Amino acid sequence: MIPYLQAEQLGKRYGELMLFENVSFTIFKEQKVALIAKNGAGKTTLMEMIAGNDTSDFGKITLTNDVKVGYLRQLPELNENLTVLEEALRSDNPAMELIRKFESAVKHNKQNELEELTIKMDELNAWDFEVRVKQILSQLKIEDFDQPVRELSGGQKKRLALANVLVNEPDLLLLDEPTNHLDLDMIEWLENYLEKTNCTLFMVTHDRYFLDRVCNEIIEIDQNQTYSYQGNYSYYLQKRQERIEQEQAATEKAKNLLRTELDWMRRMPKARSHKAKYRVDQFYELKEKASGKRHDENLELDVAASRLGKKILEIDHISKAYDDLKLIENFSYKFARFEKVGIVGKNGTGKSTFLNIITNRISADAGTVEWGQTIKLGYYRQEGIEFKPTEKVIDVVKNIAEVIHHEDGRKVTASQLLTRFLFPPDTQYNFVEKLSGGERRRLYLCTILMQNPNFLILDEPTNDLDIMTLNVLEDYLAGFGGCVLIVSHDRYFMDKIVDHLFVFDGQGKIKDFPGNYTIYRNHVLEEESKKKTEAVSKPKPVQEKTRKVSQKLSFNEKREFEQLEADIDQLEMEKKELEEALNSGGLSNDELVEKSKRFSELTDELEEKEMRWLELSEKA
Q1: What's the pLDDT tens digit per position in 302-343?
Q2: Domain 313-525: which topology?
Q3: Under the phi-then-psi rule, with left for phi > 0, alpha for psi from -120 to 50, and beta for the rest, what region is 69?
Q4: Which CATH class for the 1-68+170-294 domain?
Q5: If 0-12 CB within 10 Å is exposed, 13-18 middle and 19+ buried, where does residue 476 land?
Q6: Where are the domains of the chain?
């Protein structure tokens, strides 16, 4: 195997805080590796160091043979003055730069440059790059190629940056939380794309299904030690548990031996100088082993929900549209106690609008929303809240309450609550601006749950949270004594929590589906498979068409007409297969060029035959 990257004894310190130390690993060609660690352990900092945007305080990073690195940041930095297509094509790659110039010449109608650029495009076989970038942008639901980057939303910018990184085909692909801001269809497309390509991948993600299906190695940073697992996420969970059990068994064994050795050390007379030196050394080694216990600090979510009354939330025939765009049409629902509902739908289908209507942030065009009197709403918004940079962690909580009173009579101070949310006393007086993205999310979650809500609305709660925190949050929500409404692209999270789904179709209809996301997705795939089977097996009314026109056609024309119908059906089927292949992301450059050329030829051939079919049919 060819090593692409080698990290040796890396360490990084911020003031008194040691972010990580002694981190070592190697990434080989065509490996797909994921990095797992708790929030605040320096995952993003490590990615920045590999990308060359930051330096380590200790150790070194070696890239073999000038390996080209492509890096998707959590918060990409784009050129706001370019158009979507110009930014997607921005690259050091000569072919990509040539396409950018060609697109600019077309846009500004520079006929004198187009001929020369067309020749160069042929020489560099650059046409397939242009097709590919437009296909990837379309898959990521970015279709206005001339739109200025500055007009895009944060999510669209992340997707545009992802498209640029994928199209550039780097030797080593670095992805920091790539599934954030992607809807479920996009995530499944990206999964398939990365699974089929031979790219070398190093990524940070909390999406466990994504990890399971894409990665073949997991690197974990745990208590300043680096562990490597040659397998996917499921394999990692199994082997990690085995490792922890072995460590605990070794510690327990050392403790038992230490008792014997301690007794021996005490019984030996102090005046005797001929104690076996090896046994004394062994005693101190055992003492160190026996004291080596894990410091697993897990999030403690024991915040109880307030009491629920009979009336929860009643939605009565609400509708909402913007001009001709129908987002919600005549939707009604009555929530029952302890319901846990997931919301799914493509971006732009009205999910956020729905949440804003039921939380009275915007008004519906028709219908009513009524909350029960006992409801205490906790709304975790996707955009989070703006913390003041100069504010300290403990002040954020104290601004809400210095003492939290539970309904069972318990009292918890702000400091105690923060400790349960993995902010120990020595970090509670740090400034919020020093927290990682995941730590800020955890602090925001703390401010929501400390108010004892009994109806939780969670809009993309998994973004930036580490896997350990997500596991605790999932267990908490599964036993939560209230109602939960979740919008999330994290399929694993949805599967563990929700009882049923509100499915937004983008045409205003909201369907109540009984089951979690995996059940729903399997149902959709089955329905699509049925439709394809029916379309293939369904007899086409060819004979009827032929009978209608045959009376006014010559014998040769009748034969030609019948043959055209058969040819058109065959060409349409081939065209559909080509479209699926071109959109799969699994084609090599040569295959992509070949299929793109065939697609162009096929389109012309199909158009010609359809025109002839229309000519003959008009003779009827």
Answers
A1: 666 777 888 999 999 999 999 888 999 999 999 999 999 999
A2: Rossmann fold (3.40.50)
A3: beta
A4: alpha beta
A5: middle
A6: 1-68+170-294, 81-166, 313-525, 539-617
